[in-house]
Amino acid sequence: MKHLLPNDLVSKKGRYTIFSCLSSEELEELELVQTTQVYKKGQPVFQENTQSAALFYVNQGFVKVTKLGSNGKEQILRIAKTDDLVGYRSVISGSRYKSSAIAIEDSVITLIPKAFFLKLLQNNPVFYSKVTIMLCETLDRTETKITDIAYKPVRGRIAEALLLLNDLLDEKEHITLTREDLAGLVGTVKETAIRIISEFKHDKLIEIHKRSIKVVNEKGLEKVSSLYN
Predict the structure, then answer these.
(1) Which stretches make up the Cyclic nucleotide-binding domain (predicted)?
(2) Measured distance CA(109)–CA(129) in Å, rounded
(3) Domain residue limits at 117
(4) Quick check: 58 and 101 in contact, CB under 8 A?
(5) What is the DSSP letter of 198?
(6) Are residues 180 and 113 in the same domain?
(7) Which residues of the chain have pLDDT under 50?
């Protein structure tokens, strides 16, 4: 475990983070109360139905936010990337975690205690506004995903998911999500995801390198996705 300097939480690669609006005093307190560590691929960050004592800031890497369905299968609600918060909705509502969060690659994640986060929301209007916008954007994506699962065939959902993941990559070129996770993200079974990925490779929309996927024809995937809108 380690502590980050305030500047590490304010900006990344020239981009300001959600904490850039904090005062110097708030940043100093954040440095004291936060704990940062590396979560290995597959390691849980927090688990569904446990007490929400903290929220988590993704410094580097990717985290899948999941929920178990009534059939016992894992459904991926969203993929959190660098500069995203996870677990904050349960902290705000005072409930147990409604979902689980699991690192999908080695990731650097900062734990922020519940009491400090709630104090920031109460005392810093700009931070409150940023968190509210983040919450609204998350809900918008959730509504879109529910609509897609209800009306868009699996082929279109996988094309859309690959485009979304490609946008999250930043400086990376390859998507390292497992076929099981990709299936969980779009609400299908692994075998169907594997078949459609093979079709996309045959159609030269993607390339497959060992267990990773590289999008080589974004416009082609956009066309597949938009066919079912």
Answers:
(1) 18-121
(2) 23
(3) 6-126
(4) no
(5) H
(6) no
(7) 1-3, 5-6, 13-14
